[in-house]
Amino acid sequence: MKYRYIVFVIAAAVLLGGCRDASGGAQPPDDAAQEMRGVWVSYLDLDALLNGADPSTAESRLDRLLDTCLEQGMNTVFFHVRAHSDAYYRSDVFPAADAAAALLDNGFDPLAYAVKAAHTRALSLHAWINPYRIGEDRSRAVVDRGVFEQDGTWYYDPSDDTARRKVLDGVREILDRYAVDGIHFDDYFYPDGMPTQATSFEEIPSGVTVGDWRRWQVDALISAVYGLTHTRARLFGVSPTALIQTNREKAYADVALWLRQGGYVDYICPQIYFGFSHATNPFASSLAQWQALPRRPDVALYIGLALYKAGLPDSYAASGANEWCEHDDIIARQVQAARQSGADGFVLFRYAHLTDAAQEMTHLKELL
Which runs of E-coded beta strand occur in the chain? Predict the structure, then answer.
């Protein structure tokens, strides 16, 4: 515990400059008490929308996207602003995403327009960031060191101070330049397949386990981003994988800590991408496990749902593989189950399937 305290305090002090909100930070806006009805707008959606578009076309396509979200009963958009150390907005920290580069050169900022257009429609918009993932192209890294490769993909090293500062610089410029309602991280922390022993780029103090050391690095970033968003009166949340132990032991994301202790998140949105008949992780039991975790009353629990599975076999579900093919009301029943459990709302993955999964959305809209 001694090492944990020292490491965490130093990291938080370096990243935040000692600036923390002793009162617990920003309060959600008055309308945040309503049910979260969110949708993830992935970089895959944005690439399809922005590639080859001139500013006028991009505007009309973003308008249509937001109108669709509204028509389908959503009240919040999680807009992918950085997926691979790139930016779907004008950035001084990260290079432009390929699909947004020409538009930015022509004076059109996709994020600036999306925020304004969303708020015109009374939709909230949160900036969705993958903090560590660089991708297959190392040249997209914005640091000379502090990166590593795992299974062909490059990542920022969570324990490297320079890399962490860049992540925070990116968050800061979004908060200062755009009227986003919050900052959102998903489940890309330490990549799957990391060796359980220390790697060559890790300097782990004697007497500290590799797992604890890595969790402290992620904790430090999460705490710093929370503090930064709250100095700007915005919200911050994370959507980890549904498997609690996988988060802790493989991604080194201590979601249980973030739920029960102040200063980390305003909400958690586990991606419970399982059907009711999933052989090893049925939806109901996974939902119950998340509800059983001790949680501060000021931390909301949203449930991420797999709209993308509608009408498709699920090869990971074993005996439940055909459930999504045989039923077209799974999402609606999952929303009902989440409400009955006391969850604060849901988020759908992803935007493209709001129209592709027509029957699932028809049943869901009957509940909204």
Answer: 36-41, 76-82, 124-129, 133-135, 147-150, 153-156, 182-185, 235-238, 267-268, 300-305, 345-349
8 A C-beta contact, residue 33 and residue 245? no
pTM of structure: 0.92
Longest dimension (CA), the chain: 59
Can you tell me which residue has the tokens 């999460």? Answer: 222
Q: Tell me the per-residue pLDDT of 32-84, one tens digit each, with 9 for 90 and over.
A: 458 999 999 999 999 999 999 999 999 999 999 999 999 999 999 999 999 99
Fold for the domain defined by 2-18+36-268: TIM Barrel (3.20.20)
Angle ∠(112,241,219) on CA atoms, nearest 5: 75
Sheet hosting strand 133-135, strand order edge to edge: 133-135, 153-156, 147-150
Per-domain residue ranges for the chain? 2-18+36-268
What is the DSSP pairing of strand 153-156 with strand 76-82? unpaired
Alpha-carbon distance of 114 to 206, in angstroms, equals: 49
| Alpha-carbon distances of 241 from 33, 363, 366, rounded to whole Å | 25, 26, 28
